[in-house]
Write a structure and sequence with these properties.
The complex is a heterodimer of chains A (181) and B (149). Helices cover 74% and strands 2% of the residues of chain A. With 181 residues, chain A is an all-alpha fold. Chain A is globular, with a radius of gyration of 17 Å. The radius of gyration of chain B is 42 Å and the shape is elongated. At the A-B interface, helix 2, helix 3, strand 1, helix 6 and helix 7 of A face helix 1, strand 1 and helix 2 of B. Strand 1 of chain A pairs antiparallel with strand 1 of chain B, so a sheet runs across the interface.
């Protein structure tokens, strides 16, 4: 936490080393979060890259209310939500047939690739409604408490808890049906 | 292990790999963007300074105008006070004292217009005994014991 405050201070004074450190510290965390939310490595890369780019260009205009990690995470989550809404990722297509290919298309040119064993989970995640997926991913991958997620999504704690429960139930039924096949 | 915990454990296994050359490429792009925005901000700084100077000058003018307005506004009561002194003569009798006090009060509240009105009212009250109509200045002069009436 103290290191982040120091990094932000140095970054505001124009230190590119501080920016490099921030990038190295949080890029994997943010990329994993965006990829789990969108299940499309290409779009997830764009989201994280755009967030870091805006951050780099903000300079000393940046105003942090909380800590750096939560600031970057909120940027990524909001941006991913917008992307998901705009492009309606996987909403109207048959996911089972094309998902693995779309998730990791053209691997050699990609910044991020989803690991083989994670494909099954990603494939199941993308089939649950986005609101539920966001809660599940933020809680399990974003290390966020339900209260924090409720504040981020501007809904009640009970809503978040029920979204999480429904999300996990759906994931279980999807994964069980895959095993039965 | 409960089914929920199993699912949670499974979801936590979602992992990614990062392509190192691409990662470096992204970082270089980021640093370049940072350097460009820093340069742009530095070149925009003189324009901002001029804008700041202009704003400061405008603010000084506004403050001076406000001060002048306030000072000129405060000047008026002083005039009232000097006028009041004209009526503040040394009264000889209790009746004169009461007259002076009441005239001062009337003058403070409404100026010369109010005093004129007060004189008219007094004139109407004592009309039967008054030989001829006198002016306000004559009346003030009488209260101040002027020699010439």
């Amino acid at each position: 936490m103290l290191e982040d405050k120091l990094l932000i201070l140095r970054f505001k004074h124009g230190s590119s080393d501080a920016l490099r450190r921030i990038y190295e510290k949080y890029r994997i965390y943010l990329l994993r979060l965006a990829t789990a939310l969108l299940y499309d490595a290409g779009i997830a890369e764009d989201v994280v890259h755009d967030v870091f780019l805006r951050f780099a260009q903000s300079g000393n205009e940046i105003r942090l209310k909380g800590n750096l990690k939560s600031y970057l995470r909120t940027c990524v989550v909001n941006s991913a939500r917008n992307k998901a809404r705009a492009e309606q990722i996987r909403a109207s297509v048959d996911i089972d047939e094309i998902a693995p290919a779309a998730a990791n298309s053209n691997e050699s040119q990609q910044w991020v690739t989803i690991k083989e064993e994670a494909m099954r989970i990603g494939n199941a995640l993308v089939q649950i409604p986005y609101e539920q997926r966001e809660v599940v991913v933020l809680h399990l991958h974003g290390d966020m408490k339900f209260r924090e997620i409720a504040d981020l999504q501007n809904v009640s704690l009970k809503t978040i808890q029920s979204r999480y429960r429904y999300g996990l139930d759906k994931l279980r039924s999807i994964l069980n049906s895959e095993v039965e096949k | 292990m409960r089914p929920t915990e199993k699912i949670e454990k499974l979801v936590r296994k979602f992992e990614i790999d990062v392509n190192t050359p691409k990662d470096q490429e992204a970082l270089d792009e980021l640093l370049q963007a940072h350097a460009n925005s820093k340069r742009a901000r530095q070149s925009a700084a003189p324009a901002n300074t001029w804008r700041l100077i202009k704003f400061a000058a405008a603010a000084v003018i506004v403050v001076l105008a406000a001060c002048w307005f306030i000072m000129s506004d405060r000047g008026e009561p002083k005039q009232h006070q000097t006028n009041k002194l004209v009526v503040a003569a040394n009264p000889k009798t209790p009746a004169e004292l009461v007259s002076v006090i009441s005239l001062n009060m009337v003058f403070r509240d409404g100026g010369m217009t109010a005093m004129e009105k007060q004189f008219d009212m007094a004139e109407q009250k004592v009309k039967p005994g008054l030989k001829e109509r006198i002016t306000t200045s004559q009346l003030i002069c009488e209260l101040e014991n002027c020699e010439k009436i």
